[in-house]
């Protein structure tokens, strides 16, 4: 059984597979960008017919939305890739993904801008303002999150604890879960894409979906899967340790993920507030957790 899981891990989560996935998604992002631009051009010259109220064909700027979607799928793979290696890197990738989703939304916002003197009286301009401020805030927060993550690793090294059998088993469980998660993500991505194509070709009357709905495609369900995975990891963690600070940290990370998931149901400034609050909460959790670790190192 161990040999079987090692082979699966080599196929799905090896460094070689990661490099191949990176090349694949870069190529498909470039190709999809060209196809999207071509489709917009053909629509503009009336060679293709499509509903004019479709939010993703109104401007060449909206075409940037498509390659970013494939880059985001690659980021999802990286999130799963880091799951067995480091909890903080795994959570950090969640924060990177939601930030990239917000950046992708900004490209759509740019195509909707109304350049007039009454900037804050236009809904599209307000959305752009909220999103651009949100991205800047997230960029700063993620910087501090990774800085605190490095601090935690330095503190752990100072303690010089050898990996015990419980920890080895926990890492093995996380590896198995990561391999299963790759397959879940793969089928979820295919289902979401096919379902979206069906809705926009067969159910023509409903083709005019807001950008909020487009943003939630795949990622709404994906973060639901992440929440369930995080809860399962938390329960398994109790077999490894019952240290209060670690339990609170892992529980808090689940709350942070739930807040990100809730952001897909919100719109406008509330969407941005939920995302920034979720990442800010994670940064604060890690800051406090590091202080606990310093106490443990000092008095152990």
Cα distance spanning the termini? 38 Å
Strand elements, count: 0
**Rg, Cα atoms, Å:** 21 Å
Envelope shape: globular
Count of helical regions: 10
Q: What structural class do you assign from the helix and strand content?
A: mainly alpha
Secondary-structure element order, as H and E?
Answer: HHHHHHHHHH
Helix content: over 70%
Largest sheet: none
Low-confidence stretches: 203-212
User: Beta-sheet strand percentage?
Assistant: under 5%
Compute the average pLDDT: 80
What is the topological layout?
Blueprint: H1 2-12, H2 15-44, H3 65-82, H4 87-112, H5 123-159, H6 165-201, H7 211-216, H8 219-240, H9 244-263, H10 269-299
Helix pairs in contact: 1-6, 2-3, 3-4, 3-6, 4-5, 5-10, 6-8, 8-9, 9-10
Task: Label this structure with key terms.
300 residues, mainly alpha, 10 helices
Q: Can you give a write-up of this model?
A:
With 300 residues, the protein is an all-alpha fold. The protein contains ten helices and no strands. The protein has helices spanning 2-12, 15-44, 65-82, 87-112, 123-159, 165-201, 211-216, 219-240, 244-263, 269-299. Mean pLDDT is 80; it is low at 203-212.
Summarize the structure.
The chain is an all-alpha fold and 300 residues long.
């Amino acid at each position: 059984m161990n040999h079987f899981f090692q082979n699966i891990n080599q196929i799905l989560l090896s460094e070689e597979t990661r490099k191949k996935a990176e090349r694949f998604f870069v190529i498909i992002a470039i190709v999809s960008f060209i196809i999207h631009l071509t489709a917009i051009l053909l629509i503009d010259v009336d060679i293709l017919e499509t509903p004019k109220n479709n939010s993703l064909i109104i401007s060449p700027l909206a075409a940037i939305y498509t390659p970013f979607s494939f880059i985001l799928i690659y980021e999802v793979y990286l999130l799963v890739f880091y799951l067995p290696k480091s909890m903080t890197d795994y959570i950090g990738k969640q924060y990177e993904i939601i930030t990239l989703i917000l950046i992708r939304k900004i490209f759509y916002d740019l195509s909707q801008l109304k350049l007039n003197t009454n900037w804050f009286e236009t809904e599209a301009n307000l959305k752009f303002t909220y999103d651009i401020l949100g991205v800047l805030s997230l960029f700063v927060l993620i910087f501090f999150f990774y800085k605190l993550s490095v601090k935690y690793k330095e503190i752990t090294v100072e303690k010089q604890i050898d990996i015990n059998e419980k920890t080895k088993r926990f890492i093995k469980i996380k590896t198995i879960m990561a391999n299963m998660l790759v397959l879940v993500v793969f089928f979820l991505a295919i289902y979401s894409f096919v379902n979206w194509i069906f809705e926009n070709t067969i159910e023509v009357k409903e083709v005019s979906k807001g950008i909020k709905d487009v943003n939630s495609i795949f990622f709404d369900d994906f973060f639901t899967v992440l929440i369930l995975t995080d809860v399962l990891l938390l329960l398994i963690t109790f077999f490894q340790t019952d240290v209060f600070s670690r339990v609170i940290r892992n529980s808090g990370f689940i709350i942070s993920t739930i807040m990100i998931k809730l952001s897909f149901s919100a719109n406008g400034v509330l969407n941005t507030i939920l995302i920034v609050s979720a990442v800010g909460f994670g940064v604060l959790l890690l800051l406090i957790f590091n202080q606990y670790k310093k106490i443990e190192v000092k008095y152990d």
